Amino acid sequence: MNHESGSMNHGLPEEQKMLAGILIDGGKTPMDNFCAVKGIIEQIGERLNFIKSDFQWTAYGSQAVISVKDAGGQSHKIGIGGIIDSNAREIFRIPSSSAFFEISLTELLNIDFDKKQYQKISEFPAVLRDISLVADQSVVYDKILLAVKQSSELPVEIELFDYFADEKKLGKNKKSLAFHLVFQSPDRTLTSEEVDIEMQKITEALKKNLKAQIRK
Question: Is the pTM of this model over 0.70?
Fold first, then answer.
């Protein structure tokens, strides 16, 4: 798919090489399909020598802006992804859980990653914990990640695995999010007690900084 951007090349609009897709699986939840789309984008990035942590997903309601970090750590917007709008679903008669993505291959291939420094993989085991919270719709994904990272240095991976917004269940302008947190140390095996302490720090930071309610 080719799109024309606003920039000019010899008086002509610059052509963007785009890649887009729709995932239609009525047997799965919207979050299942969104996570599948997220996985597709990350697999494309891996083939281009990016790593999973290079991708950033900034959520706005049921959709997210997709960005990639370059060698210097600067983020570049490459596209969007998420759950398909209800109006579009009605027009094309597709399931409510259908997800989509659209990324600019032109932007992705222009990102400088040759000088990227990769971290050594830790030889010590990781510990997985989950956390669920309810927050205002105005709280974006990046703010949640920042609150987690500022409160603890041990999470090496933070993955959104569930999302829903239901005014009857959660209240007006509220959303529910659930995350997998992977804790790992580069120099020792973490104890359960250590991870408990870090989880408490993260919980308090989310409640204090984002006014989030932690779900049990």
Answer: no
